[in-house]
């Protein structure tokens, strides 16, 4: 009988009041848990908003802002799947872009072959000797000869400086190719490596040294070209005076030959003046591009070590393509010294 009563009690459902009470307690617990979760999320959101506000106010550089923002989210939300560093690498892109522009601009500069500057040197020296020795130029021969020899010597030096500049341009390109290929090799062997600012700075310092040496040769050639330009008027006037004097002389075959050679020299010098002007303008343009490149490289160096960027396969391909473009531009510039750029 007692067992039966116990069984009846166990099978008997709970009273409605008790059930409602349990449901109410369970609902309260869930509400408290939800409130706790909501409060936790709200606090975290407020904290994130506060950090972002501080970053917005104090961090001006966009790349720094992105890196800090990424770091904050990674710390605050550990389980969040974070994006890898962007494929876009501003340091590599800035370096390759400004270098590609430099080689291209230099290749487009209007600079004649050195041989075109010096091709009248021998004839000028021959004429100078004739003027000094000829009895038809007793009053003007010595002065005209001296000015012509000086002009001829400057032309030779200017042409020689241009040759050295062209040779140095090849050295510059070879240096760039070697250093950039060393970058590519290093990062190809260790694809997960991040940009080592010291490694890049050493490479860039070598490139800057090569550029500075090239710019020195450009400046030397430009100074000599300008000096030749300044002598053009004086030598032309002295030759004209010699021509006038021989016109008053009893013309014989020797006098006529001197007259013709002097007239030819005056005409050549007149034509050369235009080519010298063009060469000086081309060298000034190259000088300006080299100065601009120096400024751009300083910006690249300033960005090194500031933000960490991953060297991706895209970055490596970007560098490889740039090296090919540089070689093409340098070949175009180097071949200028083999071409007959001016007439006369």
Number of strands: 0
**Element-by-element helix/strand order:** HHHHHHHHHH
Question: Helical residue percent?
Answer: over 70%
Structural class from helices and strands?
A: mainly alpha
Report the span from N to C terminus.
137 Å
Q: What overall form do the CA principal axes indicate?
A: rod-shaped
Annotation field: number of helices: 10
Q: Percent of residues in beta strands?
A: under 5%
Q: What's the pLDDT, averaged over the residues?
A: 75
CATH architecture name of the largest domain? Up-down Bundle
What is the count of structural domains? 2
How much is the radius of gyration in Å?
Answer: 40 Å
List low-pLDDT spans: 6-10, 57-87
Stated plainly, the CATH topology of the largest domain is called Hemolysin E, Chain: A
What is the top-level CATH class of the largest domain?
A: Mainly Alpha
Q: How many strands, what sense, and barrel or not for the largest sheet?
A: none
Region (Disordered): 1-20
Helix and strand arrangement:
Blueprint: H1 2-11, H2 16-58, H3 62-76, H4 90-108, H5 114-118, H6 121-133, H7 141-189, H8 197-247, H9 253-303, H10 313-334
Helix pairs in contact: 2-3, 4-9, 4-10, 6-7, 6-9, 7-8, 7-10, 8-9
What does this molecule look like?
This protein is mainly α. It folds into two domains: 2-76; 90-338, Hemolysin E, Chain: A, CATH 1.20.1170. Helix content is 81%, strand content 0%. The protein is built from ten helices and no strands. It has helices spanning 2-11, 16-58, 62-76, 90-108, 114-118, 121-133, 141-189, 197-247, 253-303, 313-334. Helix 4 packs antiparallel against helix 9 (253-303). The radius of gyration is 40 Å and the shape is rod-shaped. It starts with a helix and ends in a 10-residue tail after the last helix. Mean pLDDT is 75; it is low at 6-10 and 57-87. Residues 1-20 are annotated as: Disordered.
